[in-house]
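Internal ticket - ligand job 461, 2-acetamido-2-deoxy-beta-D-glucopyranose:
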Amino acid sequence: MKSFGLSVRTAAFFLALFSQSVSGKDCVCELENLQRPFPMEKLNSINTAANDCTKSITSTQLTEVDVLMLGVQRRLDQLEKSVSVLENEDDGDLYGAVSLRIIELELAEVQVLLGKLKNTIKSNKQLSEITATKMQNVTKGMEELETFDVSQVVSKQRENQRMKRDLAKCEHELHATPQPPIPRPRRCPQGQLVNMNGPRTYSLTQYGTSYYYGAWGKDPKPAPGKEDMYWLVALTSSNAFANYVRHYSSLSTILVGVGPVDTTIASSNPTTNTIIGPNVVQYGDALYYGCYNTPSVCRFNISTRTITNTPLPQNSGFNNKFPFGHLDATYIYTDLDFATDESGLWVVYTTPDNFGNVILSEVLEGSPPSLGRSWRTSLHKRTATNTFMACGVLYATRFQDKQTEEIFYSFDTETREERYDLKIHLKKMQTNIQSLNYNPRDRMLYAYSDSYIVSYDAVFQ
Ligand SMILES: *[C@@H]1O[C@H](CO)[C@@H](O)[C@H](O)[C@H]1NC(C)=O
Ligand SMILES: *[C@@H]1O[C@H](CO)[C@@H](O)[C@H](O)[C@H]1NC(C)=O
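stdout (structure tokens):
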């Protein structure tokens, strides 16, 4: 059995010379350092160099490459599909010509993306070469400094760490006999939400940093031919209102910001039945959102450009009465929050008679839309920063710190089980998240965060 105690040899660094004066009156103790003096300045300069290295490669640059790679990958998939369509359809006639034109356009998009990717990689490569040289320098310096470690504190520590790791690994293997999973009713084939990976994509929109509030995503029940489309709504007036929805043909086009198509809800902003608040969703080729200045659910039919609405229960909060928040700040005009999941469409809101605690209602698609079943929860709306639905379970987030948003709460509509102890973390790229929505088709969570559009992979058990 090895001992894990840290052994620090208390070597005699100093030679003590005692001398007594002849008179016997003074006692003098002279200390003479036999060691070379420790080069503190050198340690400091290495420290600075190491910090510089870390700073020069930021995560943003890495993410940039990721996003572009993803864009190229998606476009290539699309291109492949189109080519096979052309192969099947080509009768040497009009069909073939049209398909060919589409492929040409796609090819052009891929080329644009590849160009961007090439430039990004080139600049990152230069950066990493410089950084590598610096890192070598830092390593060399550290090795030199280690020769000052006569008492071998560092090397012993390292040895200890290694042994601790071995021990932990050994213990882990000992306990690795799999625990039988706690049986849970499986309402959703994919099981329970356990994690959010990502960000998978992270990008500014075409608007740059002009609009801090908004939402984006992919219609989980798209109209035929619109399966690859992405929608984007930015609150273009007072961080509160919008009067049009923007569509992009694919993920890469929304990330790069090319070729949008705008569909106008009303010619002025705001006006009756235009959008208030960021938590909108698109479902079944229609946009669902809080109606301007009324406690109602609005639906904008994208193909017919017509609006229908349905009122919320009496006294429901609107016009910033019951927004989401954290500490003493609130996310303005977030009285209503729309959500999509495997079972359809939902709206989150609250009323004074539920003490400002979240109420969840189904939204039924009929004409006009209407509210279905409702659930009253004990979650105070203002203590949450946002909510989303997945597999019939309502999830709420809170602000943990600038880098992290925590999914801390869940309410299961089937069992009415409420939990406040979830600890699923969302890694943020910006401080605030203004909207969150889950798409059951690609199982991604779409977030709008201080002008940036971000997505995460939902991981189920
Ligand atoms: C390496 O370190 C030396 C001194 O420690 C310094 O003069 C030199 O500029 C460093 N080189 C780089 C590439 O940082
Ligand atoms: C939009 O309008 C069309 C034409 O009336 C209709 O077929 C479709 O169901 C409507 N969509 C929604 C979501 O109501």
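Auto-summary: Helices lie at 40-56, 59-89, 94-146, 153-174, 251-256. The pocket of 2-acetamido-2-deoxy-beta-D-glucopyranose (ligand 2) is lined by residues 284-286, 301, 303-304, 365, 367 (CB under 6 Å).
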